[in-house]
Hints:
It is a single chain. By secondary structure, the protein is an alpha/beta fold. The chain has one domain: Lumazine/riboflavin synthase (Rossmann fold, 3-Layer(aba) Sandwich). It contains seven helices and four strands. Strands 2-1-3-4 form a four-stranded parallel sheet, with helices on both faces. The longest helix has 20 residues, at 97-116. It is globular, with a radius of gyration of 16 Å.
Amino acid sequence: MAEAGDFLEAFSDEEKEALAPLRFAAVVGRFYEDLANRLLQGADQGFELAGVAVPNVTHVSVPGAYELPMAAKTLIGSGEFAGIACLGVVIRGETDHYDFVCAEAARGIQDVQLETGVPCGFGVLTVDTMEQALERVQGGSKRDTGAHAVEAALASLAVKRELSGRRSRAGFAG
C-alpha cells in the first residue's frame, strides 16, 4: 500500500499549479489536544506536498469529532473552500458513547460532502487505545491520518473535476 506522501508527492507540477490558488480548510476536534495537533501537522504537510500553501488553509477547532460535520458544512456554506480535511480522535471507553460518536461523525461528514459536492477527507481515528492513536498520527509508526485525510479530499476533488469536465452522454447528467 502506498503511503500518503507517495501519493501527494506524485502530483504533477500542473496539478500543483491548479491546486495552489484554491482555499481549503482543516477542521480538528480538540478532545485529545496532543493528537489533534499531530493530525493538523500531518494535514498541513499533506497540503504543502500537493502545492497548497499554508496561508490557503484555514484551521478551525471544535470540541470533538461529533462537531466536525457542522463546522465543515458551515465552512462550505461560505463558498470559499474547495475541500475540507475533517480530523479527530475517538478512543473506545467502557460505554456505548464511542459507537454513537464514531457513527455520527462518519455519517455527518459523508452527508456534508454528498449534500454540498465539496470533498471532505475523513481523518477521524476510531481506535481502542491511546497507543493505537499515537501510531496513526504524524510521527507514528503506522501512518499519518492527517495527511491521509488531505489525500482523500484532494483525490475526490480531482475526480469531481474530471467528471465535471466530461461531455454529457446518454444516461449521464451533465
